[in-house]
What we know:
Layout: H1 9-14, E1 20-21, H2 31-35, E2 41-45, H3 51-59, E3 64-68, H4 72-85, E4 90-93, H5 100-103, E5 109-115, H6 133-142, E6 143-153, H7 156-168, E7 172-177, H8 180-183, H9 192-199, E8 205-210
Parallel strand pairs: 1-4, 2-3, 2-5, 3-4, 5-6
Antiparallel strand pairs: 6-8, 7-8
Amino acid sequence: MRLRKKPGTVEKLLEHKGLVLDDPFINFGKWKEYWGNSNPIHVELGTGKGQFITTLARRCPNLNLIGVEKVEEVLLKAARKAKELQLPNLALLWVDVRELDKIFAPGEVDRLYINFCDPWPRRRHAKRRLTHTRFLQIYAKILKQDGEIHFKTDNEELFEFSLNEFSENGWKLKNICLDVAKRGPEDNITTEYEEKFQELGSPIYRCEAVKMSQGTVL
Length: 218
């Protein structure tokens, strides 16, 4: 499902043809062919303005990276940043996360990143959280066996909710961290949002979830 288009933004996105893919669905099951190599495929869900995914692309040229964003105005900012950096191992998709299993074949993705997604704090909106069971079902389908989700948030309630959802759906949790600034990985890549909250002294929560054989699959 695509969001309502803001006049002029779509045309500007199309100017980045080759970086922003206008029809990613045609690559279903053929992403290795698209990249022309067998490097691991890592996907960021909700790539925002692109700081995380572009930094990762520069640090790890042997990864094939895909940024997914449904808000076209935000994706345009990420596209402009990526274009300036000339990153051959990065592609951007203007799609909703709910369409992932129509874009990637089962087991085609090695890792997913979910950074600071909307916490949807009201209980009645829980199904909209990107770590809700219905989304985990999609992720389990497109991730390879032992594929991982790396999750970060500044929202403690969302973090607790997410840990429970992962566990209840058969994912193995590891590297659980309650304050990334103090105990996180040395190679942590920050987002614009993360830097803002670190300056305020707010803790950043992080965990990794591994798809196990008993993980939920559609």
